[in-house]
């Protein structure tokens, strides 16, 4: 029996996620729309998306989608808040006018 060296190949490293900020921006932006989170989650997604676009060039597309979805959710929340304040505030002002209170 001869002693021949066994040739082994080292596993090649797989290219994993190299832009975690972009991934988190995307996840938070989509989760804020999907689950209806109001202010904190879309703001976090927006901040992470902006940081990712500056720091991680390979994750620019994911960061952009995260930014857009976060902005859409923030805009929807602000519009809903404005409508709510107008309705409740309008009812409150209407009660102050003499002769309109029920």
Structure notes:
- By secondary structure, this protein is an all-alpha fold.
- It is built from three helices and no strands.
- 68% of the residues lie in helices and 0% in strands.
- α2 packs antiparallel against α3 (60-96).
- It is rod-shaped.
Q: What is the number of E strands?
A: 0
- Compute the separation of the termini in Å: 105 Å
Strand residue content: under 5%
Number of helices: 3
Mean pLDDT: 82
Helix content: 55-70%
SSE order: HHH
Structural class: mainly alpha
Taken from the alpha-carbon principal axes, the silhouette is rod-shaped
Instruction: List unreliable stretches of 5+ residues.
Output: none
Largest sheet: none
Q: Indicate the radius of gyration in whole angstroms.
A: 26 Å
Break the fold down into its secondary structure elements and pairings.
Layout: H1 20-35, H2 40-55, H3 60-96
Helix pairs in contact: 1-2, 1-3, 2-3
Summarize the structure.
By secondary structure, this protein is mainly alpha-helical.
Features of the shown structure:
single chain; 102 residues; mainly alpha; 3 helices; rod-shaped
């Amino acid at each position: 029996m001869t002693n021949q060296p066994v040739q082994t190949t080292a596993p090649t490293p797989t290219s994993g996620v190299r832009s975690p900020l972009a991934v988190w921006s995307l996840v938070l932006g989509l989760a804020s729309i999907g689950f209806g989170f109001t202010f904190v989650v879309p703001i976090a997604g927006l901040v992470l998306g902006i940081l990712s676009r500056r720091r991680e060039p390979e994750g620019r597309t994911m960061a952009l989608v995260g930014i857009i979805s976060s902005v859409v959710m923030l805009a929807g929340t602000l519009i809903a808040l404005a409508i709510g304040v107008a309705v409740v505030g309008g009812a409150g002002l209407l009660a102050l006018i003499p002769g309109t209170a029920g």
